[in-house]
């Protein structure tokens, strides 16, 4: 922990990093400050992506959030490049462009709906941003409805804007979420775990009861099962999943399916 | 809401951090986040001492939090004193830093608080108890940052010479290593469960 010294970034992948840690990037082997390169450089350099939790600084990458350092190799076989990011657990959501989130309609201001997405500002959603919506054919959205959409504009300087259609004009699952069901909030880390491909938790739960599930990247989950009791059981299991290990979860589910 | 911090002796402070959240109109800053610190004493209403400590904590936190990433938002830090057995200000500083760390706010570095007391014979006592603070000639509190062990905040009570202050500062910088190692171990423990 000596002050002022950086650590090689490859040694830290998969380990806990704290804000203030400086990660040194591998220097390009052909780099030589004195000589000019006249010919075409042999190996094309991949682009290094600096993901959430990292900022570029003079020496390399500065860690700004605590968490586990992750790395993904660049596609196409490029040796350099790829992406580094910090996997941190937090509960507060900050809007990011392209994220799919569940919003609650709080107000209707003319042609625009105001949605609460759990961030510092309310997001706006135009009534034309639904599939098949025209000026004559308006969507039936009331205050208090749940909307599943994605962010079109989300940066620190502007008010976030949401849409319920993708770039080709199709809704692809987005839009107004139906009646009934139960909405609750969990931490962002659990959502990312549930959204991973082949998530065990979802597979095990689906063997228990059939249910509908909508996961918002802002930490909100909407569940609907056949009866209220089944819905509440699934809600309790998902909330507890954050702190249970895999064995404890299997035991809890075995007890429930035995009943 | 964040977990409490175990501290020197029996002093403990509970820190809760909310943000980046919506900000009321007049407090909005156009280019960075508005940081607010609320310090609640164990008994009684907050008085002038709490207000001055809040400003000190706020200035320290502002120097590490990357507020430019969240303009026009409010970050609120609430500290509740659970018990006070000496070195309260450095305990509040440590709790504030752990709160910022746990909440996932972007920070440029970490900081820790260390209190030194100069007793009448000139010896330096780190993290003094209330009794030692009262008998001391001077009590100095430093906030040390983790990147280069620089001093973010220094506050003194009583009188001491410049050399003595330098010695206390050097002792505090060495002691800061222990606190930063504790931060690292706690974070490691938290992420080992997932």
From TrEMBL, chain A:
One of its GO terms (molecular function) is RNA binding. PANTHER family: EXOSOME COMPLEX COMPONENT RRP40, PNAS-3 RELATED. InterPro entries: Exosome_RNA_bind1/RRP40/RRP4, KH_dom_type_1, KH_dom_type_1_sf, NA-bd_OB-fold, RRP40_KH-I, RRP40_N, Rrp40_S1. Residues 15-89 form the Exosome complex component RRP40 N-terminal domain. GO terms for cellular component: cytoplasmic exosome (RNase complex); nuclear exosome (RNase complex); nucleolus. Keywords: Acetylation, Cytoplasm, Exosome, Isopeptide bond, Nucleus, RNA-binding, rRNA processing, Ubl conjugation. Component of the RNA exosome core complex (Exo-9), composed of EXOSC1, EXOSC2, EXOSC3, EXOSC4, EXOSC5, EXOSC6, EXOSC7, EXOSC8 and EXOSC9; within the complex interacts with EXOSC5 and EXOSC9. The catalytically inactive RNA exosome core complex (Exo-9) associates with the catalytic subunit EXOSC10/RRP6. Exo-9 may associate with DIS3 to form the nucleolar exosome complex, or DIS3L to form the cytoplasmic exosome complex. Exo-9 is formed by a hexameric base ring consisting of the heterodimers EXOSC4-EXOSC9, EXOSC5-EXOSC8 and EXOSC6-EXOSC7, and a cap ring consisting of EXOSC1, EXOSC2 and EXOSC3. It is found in: Cytoplasm; Nucleus, Nucleolus. SUPFAM superfamilies: Eukaryotic type KH-domain (KH-domain type I) (SSF54791), Nucleic acid-binding proteins (SSF50249), Ribosomal L27 protein-like (SSF110324). Belongs to the RRP40 family. The keyword Transmembrane helix does not apply. Residues 181-229 form the K Homology domain. It comes from the Eukaryota. This is Exosome complex component RRP40. It comes from Podargus strigoides (Tawny frogmouth). GO terms for biological process: CUT catabolic process; DNA metabolic process; exonucleolytic trimming to generate mature 3'-end of 5.8S rRNA from tricistronic rRNA transcript (SSU-rRNA, 5.8S rRNA, LSU-rRNA); nuclear polyadenylation-dependent rRNA catabolic process; poly(A)-dependent snoRNA 3'-end processing; regulation of gene expression; TRAMP-dependent tRNA surveillance pathway; U4 snRNA 3'-end processing. Gene3D superfamilies: 2.40.50.100, K Homology domain, type 1, Nucleic acid-binding proteins. Pfam families: KH_6 (PF15985), RRP40_N_mamm (PF21261), RRP40_S1 (PF21262).
From TrEMBL, chain B:
One of its GO terms (biological process) is rRNA catabolic process. Keywords: Cytoplasm, DNA-binding, Exosome, Nucleus, Phosphoprotein, rRNA processing. GO terms for cellular component: cytoplasmic exosome (RNase complex); nuclear exosome (RNase complex); nucleolus. It is found in: Cytoplasm; Nucleus, Nucleolus. Belongs to the RNase PH family. CDD domains: RNase_PH_RRP46. This is Exosome complex component RRP46. Residues 9-106, 110-174 form the Exoribonuclease phosphorolytic domain. InterPro entries: ExoRNase_PH_dom1 (IPR001247), ExoRNase_PH_dom2 (IPR015847), ExoRNase_PH_dom2_sf (IPR036345), PNPase/RNase_PH_dom_sf (IPR027408), Ribosomal_Su5_D2-typ_SF (IPR020568), RNase_PH (IPR050080). Its main location: cytoplasm. Homodimer. Component of the RNA exosome core complex (Exo-9), composed of EXOSC1, EXOSC2, EXOSC3, EXOSC4, EXOSC5, EXOSC6, EXOSC7, EXOSC8 and EXOSC9; within the complex interacts with EXOSC3, EXOSC8, and EXOSC9. The catalytically inactive RNA exosome core complex (Exo-9) associates with the catalytic subunit EXOSC10/RRP6. Exo-9 may associate with DIS3 to form the nucleolar exosome complex, or DIS3L to form the cytoplasmic exosome complex. One of its GO terms (molecular function) is DNA binding. It comes from Podargus strigoides.
């Amino acid at each position: 922990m000596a002050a002022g010294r950086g650590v090689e970034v490859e040694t830290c992948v998969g380990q806990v990093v704290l804000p203030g840690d400086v990660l040194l990037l591998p220097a390009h082997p052909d780099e030589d400050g004195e000589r000019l390169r006249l010919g075409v450089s042999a190996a094309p350099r991949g682009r290094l992506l600096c993901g959430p939790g990292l900022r570029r600084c003079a020496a390399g990458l500065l860690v700004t959030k605590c968490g586990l350092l992750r790395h993904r190799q660049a596609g196409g076989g490029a040796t350099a490049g790829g992406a580094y990011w910090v996997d941190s657990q937090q509960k507060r959501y900050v809007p990011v462009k392209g994220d799919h989130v569940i919003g609650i309609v709080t107000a209707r201001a003319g042609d625009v709906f105001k949605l609460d997405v759990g961030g510092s500002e309310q997001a706006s959603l135009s009534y034309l941003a639904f599939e098949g919506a025209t000026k004559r054919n308006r969507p039936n959205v009331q205050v208090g409805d749940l909307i599943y959409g994605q962010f079109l504009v989300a940066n620190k300087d502007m008010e976030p804007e949401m849409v319920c259609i993708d770039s080709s004009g199709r809704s692809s699952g987005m839009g107004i979420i139906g009646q009934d069901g139960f909405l609750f909030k969990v931490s962002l880390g659990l959502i990312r775990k549930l959204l991973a491909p082949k998530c065990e938790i979802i597979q095990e739960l689906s063997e228990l009861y059939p249910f509908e599930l909508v996961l918002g990247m802002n930490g909100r989950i909407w569940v609907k099962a056949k009866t209220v009791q089944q819905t509440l059981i699934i809600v309790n299991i998902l909330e507890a999943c954050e702190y249970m290990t895999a064995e404890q979860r299997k035991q809890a589910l075995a007890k429930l399916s035995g009943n | 809401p964040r977990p409490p911090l175990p501290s020197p002796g029996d002093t403990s402070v509970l820190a809760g951090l909310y943000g980046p959240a919506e900000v009321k109109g007049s407090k909005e800053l156009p280019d960075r986040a508005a940081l607010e610190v609320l310090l609640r004493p164990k008994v009684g209403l907050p008085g002038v001492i709490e207000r001055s400590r809040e400003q000190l904590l706020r200035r320290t936190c502002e120097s590490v939090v990357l507020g430019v990433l969240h303009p026009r938002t409010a970050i609120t830090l609430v500290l509740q004193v659970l018990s006070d057995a000496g070195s309260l200000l450095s305990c509040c500083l440590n709790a504030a830093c752990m709160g910022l760390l746990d909440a996932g706010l972007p920070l440029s570095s970490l900081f820790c608080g260390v209190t030194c007391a100069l007793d009448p014979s000139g010896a330096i006592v780190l993290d003094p108890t209330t009794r030692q603070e009262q008998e001391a000639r001077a009590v100095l509190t430093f906030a040390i940052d983790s990147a280069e062990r620089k001093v973010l905040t220094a506050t003194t009570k009583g009188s001491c010479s410049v050399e003595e202050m330098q010695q206390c500062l050097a002792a505090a910088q060495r002691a800061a290593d222990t606190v930063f190692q504790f931060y690292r171990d706690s974070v490691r423990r938290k992420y080992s469960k997932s």
